[in-house]
Amino acid sequence: MLHQFAPAVERLRIAAFRTGQEALHGVAWMGPATVFPQAVGLGASWNPDLLRRIGEAVSTEVRGMRARDPRVGLNVWAPVVNPLRDPRWGRNEEGYSEDPALTAALATAYTRGLRGGHPRYWRTAPVLKHWLAHNNETGRDTTSASVPPRVLHEYDLPAFRGPVEAGAVAGVMPAYSLVNGRPNHLSPYLEQELRTWTDRELVVCSDAAAPSNIAGSQGYHATHEEAAAAALRAGVDSFTDHDQDPAPTIARVRGALERGLIGEHHIDTAVRRLLAMRRELGEFDPEDDPYAGLGPEHVDTPAHRELAREAAEQAVVLLKNDGLLPLSAHGGGGEDAGVGADAAGGAGTVAVIGPMADACKRDWYSGDLIRRSTLRGALAERLGAGRVVHADGSDRVRLRCASGGWLYVPAGAGAPEAAPGSAGSLNPAHTEGRTDLPPVTRGEHPTELALTDWGGGVLTLHAPDGHCLSAAADGFVRASAEEPGGWVVQETFVLDPHGDGHLLRHLGSGRLCRLTPDGLRTTGEGEGPESAEVFTVEVTERGEDAAARAAAAAGTVIVAAGNDPHINGRETEDRTTLALPPAQERLWRAARAANPRTVLALVSSYPYAVPEADAELPAVLWTAHGGQAAGTALTRVLFGDVSPAGRLPQTWYAGDDGLPGLFDYDIIGARATYLYFDGTPLYPFGHGLSYSRFSYDGLTVTRDGDTLTAVLTVTNTGDRDADEVVQLYARAVAPRVPRPHRQLVAHERRRLAAGETGRFAFTVPVAALGHWDVAHGRWTTDPGRYELQAGASSADIRLTAPVAVGGPPPAPRPVRESGLEAAHYDASGNAVLVDRTKTRGDAVAPADPGAAARLLFRACDFGPAAPDTAVLLAARAEPGEARIGLALADGTPLGEAVVPCTDGPYAYRAVELTLGGAPRGVRDLWITLRGAVRLARLDFGLRDASREPSRAAGGH
């Protein structure tokens, strides 16, 4: 019962059960289903009601598909609620927002839809991903996020807490990574935090293969039996490991039980939680299950198709518009723009250019598209095919073989194939490439290939019939794929310079390509560059030249740029830059030079840094990959059928220089996200333009006990009906500790007719103005002045109202009575949080042992009688010694202690330090760590125990 694939128990009439059905933006991996926009696109809608309705549709399709295929699971692994701290994260497409409050609001709505409205039975049982503080794919199973207490309680936990407290969540899935040196699958916060937020039984499902990582790649425990026991004790209930084979998991748990590492009660607890979830899904009361009648006819319904279109429309964000949009029915611009100057060529026609122009992309967590709408297709349907000029922006190339002849794609090599996953695989990673098509070979006449450069040297090659070159399971390269896809993408290549030519390297296998009498194939084991074919790349037409020609032939140009969700940024692969791929930069520049009436439509899973496009082009839009209705939705927005009202769910930076390190999770210290970023973003959090105009008026704030009520009016002063997203932020005016520039506390998206005035009322807990007080380990709202700010984005504040919070000032740290937990510092330099023990607690160590780490503790109350000793609880595994020094903030040294080797990172020793400088009263304290040492805590006291006893450091 503890494995993902739990077998049937016939004597108890319990059926087999599988935890885990991907349902991030539609039912994934189980064949045709309605595909909604990517999660980050749903985040751009800022619309909880929309998310709830999508959740209802997705869970209905889960039930309907299960009626046809029992392998479809009712325990759905969605949504992803990790705040989007870093836009380079490969899985940016899976989250909702960089803001925890917006993330929690949307996740709560989506899980409510997934759960269903019945008071007893759940339509599906959603599991939140990925617990906890997970925003990097690079080394994702071995890297540790150093998360200070304030970041933990103010940023990472709230995104999970909201939907859990709402009662719509069945459980969570831990992340592959570590937090403060401890694997997330052993997180003490599963019991200390998660399971204190609700009275429900919550299920913790491991991520795939993660249980094996604990004693494997992470080396955290010596044996898999110890690892399984530790996971069960920490609260993991279902082990997703070894695919459908439960035997290794069973053996490990039995071994742990026999060794006394766990008791039967640990197993009973996990099984009870799993069975409780299955009971809520109606499995044991099928005659009472209100959802039992849902069948295949509830998949791809007209209502779901309409909802997919509505969602794609709501996800479009208008970033810039100098009046070119909306386009007229004649293909021209807005009211004053006419239909396109004849000088630009082709008045009344639209050129659509770029790799996203005729694409409707799936991502790793998409279902199989039943319907597919592209921008080119939607424009042709609206205007007529004769008024749409198309250029995909790829280079046309021929590859000459050094061994003679040209690379040649046989006719018919790209015969139609089924989309990945359509055979009903539980995971498309288990499918292999096509081997029934003729391989690419060498011929006397060249085949002209379309080369698309996705940036970073990564490219795809398309045959004349549109199919991608792909390496199959037998190593041969064939033109067999409709698009890149799969867990290991087989359709991407790199051209490595080699002498006067290039070697063609297949990225999926990492191997070079060589020509054999049977065709082009990847090199074998042990074969080096000398075995590979050397190619000369002959460009017959550059993509930017075709773009310029198409742009000059049209009245208006739309450059559709962006990413393929399987390339250069996805699960397992972070981005290294925010820059648009250079080839796509050249496309919009060439189009702009040929026709100034050029719109840049970015279709992508993540933000780009495009400051020059913003400066030079009259209009810029962004949408995430919009699912099955992507092209129709974007076209309707371009032509003004729908006024855009999407808002950015994360900051768009002007360049890479504005970003902290990928692994720096301390958003306060790193000054990251809109909350703390001190620079000027390209487009701020919450930004998005409209085809209408809105005025804000009369913000008032009243208080009733612990609740604030903010009321304002918003008027649509434009001449068209449109949605407005009213955003309410809070700000501490003169905080004693670093606080956000402003922080979202409420929002509402609402349609207002032209000329209509709407009254918006928001209730905000006073506690939302507060922060985590590290000095006392609790949430607190300091007395002082605050502001509530209403506006159209985090940088477009229209109204401000003051709020005063009374009460006594915060007390200083009671260091004489309580000591200091090292991890509860106020500020630090070169410090990293590590695991104090393998089960719970944090310590601090230098991030770089070759440099000093410094920790600042503000407002430490040493009392009227100066302590003369400090007892440091420290550990050091390496031979030799390290030093820990104490000093007051004014520079007064208090002393330094030597920490010898303690024979292990968890073997803490109490080290006594005689203090100089006689600290009295309330002072700021600096602690300096030198060498590879871990500091857990320190206590202060007097040597004369009759005067004032010192707290025993070794007992903490």
Automatic annotation (TrEMBL):
GO BP of this protein: arabinan catabolic process; xylan catabolic process
SMART domains, sorted: Fn3_like
Segments for region (Disordered): 417-439
Domain Fibronectin type III-like: 724-794
Pfam families linked: Fn3-like, Glyco_hydro_3, Glyco_hydro_3_C
Alphabetical UniProt keywords: Hydrolase, Signal
A GO molecular-function annotation: alpha-L-arabinofuranosidase activity
Family: Belongs to the glycosyl hydrolase 3 family.
PANTHER family on file: BETA-D-XYLOSIDASE 5-RELATED, SUGAR HYDROLASE-RELATED
Protein name from the UniProt record: Sugar hydrolase
